[in-house]
Each structure stands twice: as structure tokens, then as C-alpha cells.
């Protein structure tokens, strides 16, 4: 309840109580509450004085009871305004307090949220970091294993080609078991049988000593045969172990281009001396995913190659069995620079892998024709 109203009510109650006492005193029996002496005095007193003592001017009572409504209104208005201001002040203080507490709560919640999120982020980053480390570790281990396999494969290839080179040098020497096949235009071709296969040996001289390096480069280049063999289609290197040790793919076609053949072979280039270089090729049973030619090939001359079975990522036509496949038992070019010429000794033994029986003489003729293409180097590198 409003404080102003309480004050007014209390004032009215006091006035009313006072009037009630006056009336009660005027009617009350004097013998009851006063002594005889006092009663006498009261009875002998002047009636007008008694009347004056007992009588209270109604106007004075009215003035005491009457309160100017405007003063009450002003009082109430002032007190109400003070209450409103007080309440407003308290409300504003409450709002500010609530705002401060709310801001503090928000900051606290934000801090807690950020702390929680930060912890979660740290945990997530820790998990991701651990997963990344594990992935890197797995990839690193796989790379190490892959590199180890490549190194092992390269070492095996190097050992095979060292033996192939020794065999090529051995068969490049003329022995009595060689039989003359042809002698034309200064080129001599012999054949012999070794382990039930033909080995041919062709000797040719290029009368230009300055062509030594160019001849070596042409014979080593994967597509170099295009310069002297019109049946050669193309060549490329599926694997390179080092600049002088590779796996080469060679493709050939017949004159009518009605069929194609291919082969995969290890190839190496070795500098025997300052003026002598050997280029050697030999095949093994390589996994080139040929769906038609599934023969397990065993090299009858370079037998150390039979344990070499690398994976070859070959083209679709090979995978689909659209080409015929041949194998190189042993093929070599030994190029030696002389004072006035370059001498080439060409050794070749090829498994033509024909699907039906063909007379040995016919297959030897095919090999001889292919080997004789080397004589065209004389025209290519003739001295100007």
C-alpha cells in the first residue's frame, strides 16, 4: 500500500478516537471515576467553563478532519512520483544489474563455449594429426617397399645383362661352327646352332670413323631402327632403371600392314673402352598382360633371364591380344671405332613364336633379312 495513504488513514483514526473520548467523557458518571472532593469541585464549577472544557468547536474538528484534496493529490502525486522515480531507479538498477549479470553470463558461457570448442578442436586436430601421421607412415612404408622392389629388380636386371654381354662377346667371335650364309656388298653373315636355336653373326664396316658416336646413339635410341628397317613400326621404354639399363618395347609390321608383332626385352649399353661400345638385348617371361600370347617363355641362350619376371603396363591392343608376340633370345651390336672406319658386329637370335610349324630355313631367312638392314648404315653415315 502507498505510504501517503497510510499516513492519512492514521490521522483520521486519531481524530475519530479523540472525538469518541470527548463524547464518552461528557456522558460518563462522575461518581465512578472521581473522588468526592473532585466531584464536588466539578459540580460547583462554572457550567460555562465545563462546557468550554468539554466543548470542541466543530469547525476546528472540521479543519482537523478536512484536508485539502489538492494537497492530498499533490502529496499523493509527489509521493507517487517519488515512488515511481525510486521504482524506476530500482528498475534501472535491476536492469543494469541483470544486464551486467547477463553479459557476465554470456561472457562466461562464451568463454566456456570457446574453451569447449577449443578443446574439441584440439582433440579433433590431434586425431586428424595422428591419422595423417599414420597415413604418411603407411605411404612411406609402401614407398620404401616399392623402392626396395625397384632396386631389387634393377639389380637383378643388371646382373642378367652383365651375363648377356659376356655371351654376346663370346658369340661375336668367329668360330668354326659358324656357317657362311651370305657375303654381299662387303657384309658377311654366318649362322650356327646353339641349344637348338639359330644364332646369326653379321659383320659390316662403315667407312667413316667420325660416325662412331652417331651410330651408337642411333642403335640405342628406341625408334632408331626406323632409319634402316622399313618394317619397324615404333619403340618405347616401359621401364628405365638407369640411363644405360632399360626395358624396351619394339613393334614391327609386315609390308602390307595386315599384322603386327611386338617384343619386350631388357636392353643395356656398356662402354667397353674409349672406342668400343656394346648394346645388348635379351627377353624374359615378362608379365605384359597379353590375353592371347600366354606362352611361358624360357630363354635358351641367356638362361639367367628366366627368373626375371617384371610387370609391364602395356597398351590396350596388347592386353586385348591384337598383336603377335616374339622374343629376343640374344641380340647385340658391338661397335668399334678404327682409324679409318667403324666396325659393327651384329649378333642375333630371335624366337619368332609362330603358331604353326615353319621350316627352319624359312625362319632363318626372315632373321637374315632383318639383320641385313644394318648394312644401310653405310649409306646413312657415308663419309662426305
From TrEMBL:
Residues 74-148 are annotated as: Disordered. Residues 1-25 form the signal peptide. It comes from the Eukaryota. The keyword Ligase does not apply. Keywords: Signal. InterPro entries: PYST_A, START-like_dom_sf. The keyword Cell wall biogenesis/degradation does not apply. This is Fam-a protein.
